[in-house]
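Task: sequence design from structure.
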């Protein structure tokens, strides 16, 4: 029998002589419970927010994107990337050319990025789901395109039907001095077929067109800026990335979804970590109630300590009694907090207790419960409880 734990369990269950000891122990347990539930709820909120943002970008970003390490265009070597279609892990791939152009519509002008895509683009991404007006050009190779809602706003295109073309201008790379300024630029007209909306930073940046139109506009021939890949379901992204890097060589960089939006996801992760540390600090302060509870319990059980000492129990084993008592208070509060936190998250997910109101992408605040977060919170709370309990008993003397 583990005698120190047995005695600690009896102390934990039995009613104390002083009501103050009972009250402080209950308050300590309540503080641990609330802190634990708060940590689980907040972390689940950050998970839900990250998943929501990821779902927005997933409609536009591919599973894997191949870009050049130097410059904005892929190396002009003999690679035609057709070998990608033979890989069983790759479901489809699309060739992409991006560059900036000046867009003019009536008296409005705006600089946007023209993204030329080939016929496979609709299979690589879920771009058609982002359309708010009009339709996707699909396999059409004419001078047509889909405009981001932010670009359309700046061009005052939202109020009109898609009957008038946009004028696109880009500087010529092979320009030679001439008396005619018009010879310094390439210009084409583009007929908008629809408007899309992904995220504000994309909406105000992109106009998506057929690849052949973009290559003709920029006079780039067969030059590309990226290759976008869609993988088969449940493919191992890390292994495919490593295989692509080994095949393509050091001149190429291979980016997964997180790396394509590294900044925004890093900000969310840093904010989540900072919040976790702040809540851990608050929980540490709340756990010091355990220290007060143990000290008062030690004073109350002085006669028991003398009796145990007389029965031959060593100082270390007597310390372990009160250390186990502190751990029981921490574990009880932690388990209740886990149940409360998990219950709140599941209730929010099921019944939408906290709504975001009108004008947002979702009616209720998004949450996502992860087992790793629950385990991390449990380990953190028990570690704090162990340290606080040790501080309470480390100088315990048995001869008072």
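Answer:
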């Amino acid at each position: 029998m583990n005698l120190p734990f047995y005695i600690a369990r009896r102390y934990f269950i039995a009613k104390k002589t002083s009501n103050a000891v009972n009250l402080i122990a209950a308050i300590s347990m309540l503080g641990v419970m609330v802190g634990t539930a708060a940590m689980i709820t907040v972390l689940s909120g950050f998970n839900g927010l990250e998943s929501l943002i990821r779902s927005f970008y997933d409609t536009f970003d591919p599973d894997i994107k191949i870009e050049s390490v130097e410059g904005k265009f892929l190396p002009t070597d003999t690679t035609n990337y057709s070998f990608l279609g033979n890989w069983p892990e790759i479901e489809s791939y699309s060739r992409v050319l991006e560059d900036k152009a000046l867009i003019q519509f009536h008296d409005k002008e705006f600089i946007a990025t023209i993204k030329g895509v080939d016929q496979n683009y609709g299979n690589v991404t879920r771009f058609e789901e982002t359309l708010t007006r009009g339709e996707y050009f699909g396999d059409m190779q004419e001078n047509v395109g889909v405009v981001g809602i932010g670009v359309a706003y700046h061009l005052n295109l939202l109020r009109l039907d898609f009957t008038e073309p946009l004028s696109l201008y880009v500087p010529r790379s092979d320009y030679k001095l001439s008396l005619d300024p018009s010879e310094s630029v390439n210009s084409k007209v583009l007929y908008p077929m629809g408007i899309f909306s992904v995220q504000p930073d994309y909406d105000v940046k992109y106009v998506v067109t057929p690849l052949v139109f973009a290559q003709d506009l920029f006079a780039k021939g067969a030059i590309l800026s990226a290759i976008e890949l869609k993988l088969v379901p449940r493919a191992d992204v890390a292994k495919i990335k490593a295989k692509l890097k080994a095949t393509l060589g050091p001149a190429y960089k291979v980016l997964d979804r997180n790396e394509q939006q590294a900044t925004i996801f890093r900000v969310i992760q840093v904010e989540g970590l900072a919040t976790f540390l702040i809540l851990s600090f608050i929980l540490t302060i709340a756990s010091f109630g355990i220290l007060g509870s143990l000290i008062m319990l030690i004073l109350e059980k002085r006669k028991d300590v003398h009796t145990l000492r007389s029965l031959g129990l060593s100082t270390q084993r007597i310390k372990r009694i009160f250390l186990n008592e502190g751990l029981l208070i921490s574990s009880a509060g932690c388990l209740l907090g886990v149940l409360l936190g998990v219950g709140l998250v599941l209730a929010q997910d099921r019944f939408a207790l906290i709504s975001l109101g009108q004008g947002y992408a979702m009616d209720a605040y998004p949450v996502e419960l992860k087992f790793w977060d629950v385990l991390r919170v449990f380990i953190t709370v028990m570690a704090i409880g162990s340290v606080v309990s040790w501080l309470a008993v480390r100088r315990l003397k048995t001869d008072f």
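The chain has a mean pLDDT of 87.
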